[in-house]
Design brief:
Blueprint lengths: L4 E4 L5 H12 L3 E6 L3 H14 L5 E5 L5 H15 L4 E4 L14 H25 L3 E6 L12 H21 L3 E8 L12 H6 L11 H12 L7 E4 L7
Parallel strand pairs: 1-2, 1-4, 2-3, 4-5, 5-6, 6-7
Helix pairs in contact: 3-4, 4-5
């Protein structure tokens, strides 16, 4: 069976790292993108090479807030692998700030990385690769109006609309779907009860961890009739 290739942005740490491990276990070749986390990306590549010596794992550095660099990423990966079967727009920046407190620098940072970069990558993927699957990582916040992460939330709302616009324009050759997690991995500075406290206010009352997200990705990849959908993987958090 011919191996397939996935490009995962922000693959060095957190959710991106887990996605890479999961897909590698399923025999995918991987283009591992990073920006500043070079050590972690190289360590992940070396680990995957040792675990799966018959597969191909390569790292690509790109500052997604740099328009010129961003416009070259799909070209570079496609040159190395000849085809990208799956694009996962996972990389994001996440900064708290209300509308009143958001300056232009913060607004531009959040929009550039969380929305503009996926837009460019989706555009180039459609023009260069011409077939495959795109999965955009969103956030349960897209269903709410809380302004404590105003710029971040708006960037993800824009990406959710782009997900459905892309599905409409790129079909039938490219399917585009989104996954909107809730609290999955605690922030670095959070206390040990962070996830449990967040989960207590959701309908399911439990922390989901990575498994529901990985199962959502599998569902998208396995269902060739699914496009333009956003899977809320948040224990019902979008309802409150």
């Amino acid at each position: 069976m011919e191996s397939k290739t996935a490009l995962i942005t922000g693959s060095a740490k957190r959710i991106g790292n887990e996605l890479a491990l999961h897909l590698a276990k399923q025999s995918w070749n991987l283009a591992l993108h990073y920006n500043t986390s070079k050590g972690e990306a190289m360590a992940l590549r070396d680990y995957l090479k040792a675990m799966y010596p018959k597969q191909v794992f390569k790292v690509f550095c790109c500052n997604l807030s740099d328009e010129i660099a961003c416009e070259s990423l799909i070209y570079e990966v496609n040159e190395e692998f000849s085809q990208i079967d799956l694009l996962i727009n996972n990389a994001s920046v996440y900064s708290p700030s209300s509308i009143k407190e958001t300056n232009l620098e913060l607004l531009n940072e959040q929009m550039n990385v969380n929305f503009k970069a996926p837009f460019v990558l989706m555009r180039d993927y459609a023009n260069i690769c011409k077939r495959g699957v795109i999965v955009n990582f969103l956030d349960t916040r897209i269903s709410k109006y809380a302004s404590d992460y105003a710029a971040y939330s708006l960037s993800k709302v824009a990406l959710s609309h782009l997900t459905q616009m892309g599905a409409l324009e790129f079909g039938p050759d490219i399917r585009v779907n989104g996954i909107a997690p809730g609290s999955t991995i605690a922030p670095a500075n959070a206390d040990e009860n962070y996830l449990e406290n967040r989960a207590a206010s959701t309908p399911m009352k439990v922390t989901g961890g990575m498994q529901p997200i990985l199962k959502s990705l599998d569902y998208i990849l396995d269902n060739n009739f699914l496009t333009g959908q956003i899977l809320y993987c948040d224990g019902g958090e979008q309802l409150i």
